[in-house]
Amino acid sequence: MSKLVIVGTIAFDAIETPFGKTDKILGGAATFIGLAASHFKINAAAVSVVGGDFPQEYLNLLKDRNIDIEGVDIVKEGKTFFWSGKYHNDMNTRDTLITELNTLADFKPVVPENYRDAEVVMLGNLHPIIQSSVLDQMKEKPKLVVLDTMNFWMDSALNDLHKVIERIDVITINDEEARQLTGEYSLVVAARKIHSMGPKYVVIKKGEHGALLFHNSHMFYAPALPLEEVFDPTGAGDTFAGGFAGYLAKTEDYSFENMKNAVIYGSTLASFCVEKFGTERMLNLKDDEVLKRMQEFKQLTQFNIELL
Amino acid sequence: MSKLVIVGTIAFDAIETPFGKTDKILGGAATFIGLAASHFKINAAAVSVVGGDFPQEYLNLLKDRNIDIEGVDIVKEGKTFFWSGKYHNDMNTRDTLITELNTLADFKPVVPENYRDAEVVMLGNLHPIIQSSVLDQMKEKPKLVVLDTMNFWMDSALNDLHKVIERIDVITINDEEARQLTGEYSLVVAARKIHSMGPKYVVIKKGEHGALLFHNSHMFYAPALPLEEVFDPTGAGDTFAGGFAGYLAKTEDYSFENMKNAVIYGSTLASFCVEKFGTERMLNLKDDEVLKRMQEFKQLTQFNIELL
Q: Domain Carbohydrate kinase PfkB spans what residues (chains A, B) (predicted)?
């Protein structure tokens, strides 16, 4: 199996949804990506930064799941990145209430020596210059670089974003962001434009409507599992990305056909993430629950038609 | 194969989209349902009403496709139902500009004698009392009754709507309407509530996001084929319903497993409908084009995962 480098925030989140609210709880892109990827029992390393206020027990949650945390810089005199948000009733839109960058403001990621030859790199949502600096540290071009980003960087650092997008293999982006990045409403046309920016594979996340995978003229559409209740969407996108990258690192098969499976694994893991606040559900997720839900996913999507 | 009764409007539509606008063209639920169902070369009859202004050549378009039009009442002194609408740039929302009920205001559907023993009845969107009156005319309970409806009847005739919903097997409804009918945001919970109103099968149409089929605890999710361009969404829902009901009438297998295939056929036919204004694409649709797109649908959705 391949080694996986995970770059992203490790954070405190405070979340309010129609179902309730939390105090500061464990969050951050690298956290969700790591927890999802750890399901595959691969060798993975998190590259991130936290402050002196960050509990060792939270870091141990990653370490216990075989995520190397040598690359997590602990800035003793600093504070951990903090995000607070409130979801609207439809759970698809949210307001950011507080963003305190804290130690993230000066984050200079350092990939541990032992992971500079990793085959797979998952760049969680961060400033594109930080994402690029991780790729600069790799000894050779990784077999697969997956990048997540958001509209904030399109507004504030578009040139830098284009520079890192040129260097990656897969971009994961939501539908509105794909439209913003390309100026195209049709996701088919938007994906084609993004291909021309560099990535050979484009994953467009549509939340409760599932995810699309594009590779030239090939398309794959994985629906999201319809749920009785979405309790807290925080981290669902990162969990999807972690499942996607983790599965590919595990199987070492970076073909379009196998990426379909990676999308299904990502969607499956994300369907658990939203069932509880923050990381709670992912921290208590058992292998047999994942297997059972994968089978539900098959039931949900597979058909055996006789063409008339 | 089974006989299919199709009840719904036959109309003039005038449509404006970001791509252009039409004069009065052929439209109406029964028209789109009939054109879609005719793909399966079954025995079908349209039950509808038009005015003396309706061109015989339009009726012949149905007749030529083996749709019996004995049940289409031609009110010589009346005018045909006319609808005009304008789509917004996102193609998901539209404004109704004109609704002239004309002969539809006094429509009393009469099912041709030869079709009163039909196994499958497709009730297109109409006043629920009119939909009920069709069921009253059937000699025995049909094997399958499919009903389409819309929010308008929830606002204006909810009791009558509940009475007809009690009598049917499958309801097709869009996501917003499912939420309005049940007061539930989660489509899983909404479908369960609709089950308790009568229908054993619930199809929730989500436009560009596909369609969900529910049957007790079973779910199936057919995505919509991602398109470069949606030219005109008019009739897509009816085309879906016509493909769904037509396929089931053809195969005479009303099981959940076979309804999955019916959903896929419906989605495939609807993906053509939106490519041109009104019925234009459906009138020129060849069998081999449908087969090819069915195969694209398989590519789009099918995966072969090894569960880890």
A: 2-281
